[in-house]
Amino acid sequence: MGANRVAVIGTGQTKYTAVRGDVSMPGLIREAAYRAVEDAGLTMADIDAVVIGKAPDFFEGMMMPETYLAEALGCVGKPLFRVHTAGSVGGSTAIVAASHVEAGVHERVLTIGWQQQSVSEAMWALSFPIPFQQQLVAGAGGYFAPFIREYMRRSNAPDDTGILVALKDRLNALKNPYAHLHEPEITYDSIKESFMLWEPIRYSETCPSSDGAFAMVLGSEAAAAQAQADTGIPPAWVLGTSMRSEPATAHGRDQITPQAGKDCAADVYRQAGISDPLEDVDMVEMYVPFSWYEPMWLENLGFAPEGEGWRLTEDGTTQMDGRLPVNCSGGVLSTNPIGASGMIRFGEAAMQVRGTAGDHQIDGVRKAVGHAYGGAAQFFAMWVVGSDRP
Amino acid sequence: MGQQARADDELLHAPLVIEYGFNRTTGPVVGAFLTGLREQRVLGIRGADGRVVCPPVEYDPTTGEPLTEMVEVGTEGTITSWSWVPGDREGQPIPAPYALALVRLDGADTAMLHVVDAGSPDAVATGDRVRIRWADERSGSITDIACFEPVGGAS
Questions:
Q1: pLDDT at position B40, please?
Q2: What's the rounded Cα separation, in Å, for the pair A241 and A381?
């Protein structure tokens, strides 16, 4: 972390849904932005700069939307930046926003991640055949499925770990009014019987396509004190941020547990003074678009030894009432506006620390981790937020 | 033994055509503007300072506040600047050389970029009056305005 303390002082989001046909793209983003500003007890005039992020422009066929968002985001006369790091963009966007406050350049920065997946088809956007390049004709799920299979082989995990993750996350989503999928009828058997998309990933073990936006206001120490005085809601202090990247294809690259993910976790834990992640962290929002990525990331992020992550899912550790609740919001498995999904992870971690998570609030969260990944599991972004001022 | 990289004229080349039928949500303001064009009406919107922006915007360009007061503007207007396009190319907006002009419609305080079918660059000037020529078939698109034409007919 940089020279100056930074905290999350406001969060806001839209209801996530398959199609938000009633608003324009600027209207959708604005909804989350103004809710975050209001949550911080501020008006848009108090915001010094805006940092936005979304996934590839092919997802909406809207090139450089940042060029026409200034008035919708109350940003006339202010700096406006856009960040892009594939699926991890929501996380890296928040980190870029935090860096402006850390550096002492700005007092209050608004950051927003969004996606309007209904205007295109992510499967298409990820799969059009570029001449002479490795083809991703499988979409994201088909791309990741063989790596999941390899994880199962290495770890000897039971076949149903993925089902348990999906059931947990979809039931958690029932406690989150903003979540896209609300499936009160879902059961272990209904997931098991849902059709196989890319073995071992079943339909009910994969993320939906969502429209929506998530926004946060990041503030300096003085801004945090002011916001707490005005709203009565404590800040979530940013205790560490980290990003790591690696090539999509490289000799010796382990795509089951990428080195960039391990390095990102080690870096952010060092900043936040976390020596034993399972002991020191109270809850995690991690990027799990396909069920099996919960046990895989539990290992990659150091919550379990290699080959043992599935045990934390199977024994209930990652449940809402477990030792390490994972994705209390319902996670990416219940809500996936891709460009927002990383920021939802970061923002939900902050909401847990601030005590504003509502029905999916965990009591007494003092340190929470937000995690996002993107590309061919090659871009990683993480932060740790906490209740105690660093 | 490694091989040397190939000379450029030996390398393969291939076209990349990207096509997808994207959907768009217009929202309440732009949607109303486009629907109006279909009915041969042009709508602007009144900004916080009272000036009328046309084509309309959802949020005030100065204050960022949501705008709601749609204002019907005229179908005639004034050229505020222009450029002559002498080409005769496939796919151009009208099948003749034309002017690309900024046109401020009567009742609006901003200009929109559109095509003026003036026949010759000698027949167009800043300050000239033009009127909308509507497309025969309109679908709720900016091309429902086929082009503008000089008031009084092309010279």
A1: 97
A2: 8
The shortest CB-CB distance from B22 to any of A23, A24, A120 is to: A120
Count other Cβ atoms within 10 Å, centred on residue A126: 20
B8 lies in a domain?
Answer: no
- Segment A77-109, tens digit of pLDDT: 999 999 988 889 999 999 999 999 999 999 999
Task: Convert the pLDDT of each residue in A309-336 to its tens digit.
Answer: 999 999 999 999 999 999 999 999 999 9
Give the residues across from A112 on adjacent strands: A52, A215
Residue A348 tokens read as 């939900």
Residues of B in contact with A213 (CB under 8 A): none
B59/A23 CB distance under 8 A: no
Model confidence at A137, pLDDT cuts 50, 70, 90, reads low
Determine whether the interchain pair B25/A61 forms a contact, defined as Cβ–Cβ distance below 8 Å: no
Which of A100-104, A364-368, B20-24 is predicted with the least confidence, judged by mean pLDDT? B20-24
Give one DSSP letter per residue of A160-200, joined into a string.
THHHHHHHHHHHHHTT-TT-S---TT--HHHHHHSPEEETT
Test A132 with B14 for CB contact under 8 angstroms: yes
pLDDT at A138: 66
B62 contacts in A (CB within 8 Å)?
76
Full domain range(s) for residue B66: 25-150
- B64/A73 CB distance under 8 A: yes
Treating both helix axes as pointing N-terminal to C-terminal, what angle do A293-300 and A259-272 enclose, rounded to 10 degrees? 60
Q: Confirm whether B4 is domain-assigned.
A: no
Instruction: State whether B25 and A58 contact (CB < 8 Å).
Output: no
pLDDT in tens, B95-133: 999 999 999 999 999 999 999 999 999 999 999 999 999
SS (H, E, C) B30-49: HHHHHHHHHCCCEEEEECCC
| B interface test, pick of A34, A42, A71 with most B CB neighbours within 10 Å | A71
Report the share of chain A in percent with pLDDT over 90. Answer: 83
Residue A120: pLDDT band with limits 50, 70, 90: confident
Model ipTM value: 0.76
Could you give the number of structural domains in chain B?
1
Examine residue B1 and state whether it is found in any structural domain, yes or no: no
Least Cα distance to B58 among A214, A28, A117, A52 occurs for A28
Residue of chain B whose alpha carbon sits nearest to that of A74: B64
**Is residue B40 one of the residues assigned to a domain?**
yes
Question: Which is nearest to A241 in space by CA: A208, A209, A216?
Answer: A216
Total-model pTM = 0.91
Return the SS3 of A32.
helix
Task: Show the domains of chain A with their CATH numbers.
Answer: 6-121+209-236 (3.40.47.10), 139-207+239-386 (3.40.47.10)
H or E element that contains A315: none
